[in-house]
Design goal:
Layout: E1 10-14, H1 18-29, E2 33-37, E3 51-53, H2 60-69, E4 72-75, H3 82-89, H4 98-105, H5 107-116, E5 124-127, H6 130-139, E6 144-148, E7 158-161, H7 171-174, E8 180-183, E9 190-198, E10 204-206, E11 210-215, E12 218-224, H8 230-246, E13 251-259, E14 265-271, H9 281-284, H10 289-298, E15 309-317, H11 324-327, E16 333-337, E17 348-357
Parallel strand pairs: 1-2, 1-4, 2-3
Antiparallel strand pairs: 5-8, 6-7, 6-8, 9-10, 9-11, 9-13, 11-12, 12-15, 13-14, 15-17, 16-17
The structure holds adenosine monophosphate.
Residues 122, 145, 152, 155, 183, 185-186, 191, 214, 217, 268-269 line the site of adenosine monophosphate.
């Protein structure tokens, strides 16, 4: 058995956005202190953490200080530089393990890893020139989604091709001349995701899958229960557990799937962290994904991932945050704002979850 960190121990968090904020709040509830490494001062996480180190994610002094102050270090986004995570891991446990970052930072590495453990994804081709793209598009009948291998999120760095049979001249340079991946276009019936957790002892647990709707590449809503068969939910859980075991993972992971007509699943991507499509767990479960993650990384047993309510979570993007006062008038609604001063277009400012009795 792992010995859990005692209350009063410090959890280091790399990244200071809303996910770090909600992790820090969950850590505080369990009696832990938090220190956040984030280059932007007064970031959402620092507003609720015990301390912030204002430094770049790869700043060696900042990382050394984070290691010195922390009993365990975790992260709230998958683009933490792998070398920084590995350097930190020499000094202090880093959980989830840096291998999870390596796999999830590169869409090609991610798909190869998934296929390697028997998990289906969209078809894909590596694209390093317009010539590669032309060949890949012809393999996929002129349909596909072209994505940057690295640093893409919320649909950024993507281009969709439908029934394309023109000349391929320019997309490679237009996407920045960086390594790309063409994915076959998936005619999915719905998008679902599952939030799962694993402890250092190998205990695993997962929440019910959520059904997700994206707008402009950004998550708009997550509905639980998802409209899927029990067998599909079981398949999602089995895939998540296989991924967790293969990575010897500790913490919470988010796995996004395309559900095809008939119920078969393809994994779209994995996020080695708490996930936007799991925010509903703070309103509809006794133990949220944030607490579950903290429990796993400090060595506590996992809590129940059971659900006491059905629910719909919606993001508040940009000036949608102005709806907050009206939303608060609804009694069965849980609101969460992230403390961001400026409501720029496309910026996640908060979310809310409407709960209702199961099956109602
Ligand atoms: P991603 O950044 O990979 O999560 O993509 C953002 C959104 O674009 C997904 O949630 C889907 O709605 C859509 N999308 C991404 N990849 C594909 C694909 N290969 N086929 C169809 N739609 C896709």
């Amino acid at each position: 058995m792992t010995v859990p960190l005692a209350p009063g121990a410090t959890v280091g968090i790399v990244g200071g956005g809303q996910l770090g904020r909600m992790l820090a709040m969950a850590a505080a509830r369990l009696g832990y202190s938090t220190v956040v490494l984030e280059p932007r001062a007064d970031c959402p996480a620092a507003q609720v953490a015990n301390r912030q180190l204002v430094a770049a994610y790869d700043d060696s002094e900042g990382l050394a200080e984070l290691a010195r102050l922390s009993d365990v270090v975790t992260y709230e986004f998958e683009n933490v530089p792998v070398v920084a995570a590995i350097r930190l891991a020499d000094e202090v446990p880093v959980l989830p393990p840096p291998k999870a970052l390596e796999v999830s930072q590169d869409r090609l590495a991610e798909k190869r890893f998934l296929n390697g453990i028997g998990i289906a994804t969209a078809g894909f081709r590596a694209v390093e020139s317009d010539l590669d793209l032309a060949a890949a598009l012809s393999d996929f009948g002129g349909n596909g989604v072209l994505k940057t291998c690295r640093m893409g999120y919320d649909g950024k760095g993507q281009r969709v091709f439908r029934d394309f049979d023109g000349e391929v001249d320019g997309p490679f340079a237009a996407m920045g001349g960086v390594p790309l991946i063409l994915e076959s276009f998936v005619a999915f019936e719905r998008e679902i995701s599952i939030i799962a957790a694993r402890t250092a002892n190998g205990a695993m647990s997962s929440y019910d899958p959520a059904q997700n709707v994206h707008r402009n590449g950004i998550l708009h809503s997550s509905t639980v229960p998802a409209r899927i068969e029990t067998a599909t939910a079981e398949a999602a859980r089995a895939a998540a557990f296989a991924i967790l075991d293969a990575l010897d993972y500790v913490g919470v992971i988010g796995v996004e799937f395309f559900a095809l007509p008939g119920g078969a699943l393809l994994v779209n991507e994995i996020a080695p962290r708490v996930h936007n499509s799991g925010h509903w767990t703070e309103a509809a479960c006794a133990v949220s994904q944030f607490e579950q993650h903290i429990r796993a990384v400090v060595g506590l047993p996992l809590g129940s991932a059971g659900r006491h309510s059905d629910c719909v979570m919606e993001n508040l993007i940009g000036d949608e945050v102005e709806r907050a006062p009206l939303l608060l008038a609804e009694p069965e609604l849980v609101l969460h704002l992230y403390g961001k001063a400026e409501a720029r277009p496309g910026r996640k400012m908060g979310h809310f979850t409407r709960i209702r009795p199961i099956g109602s």
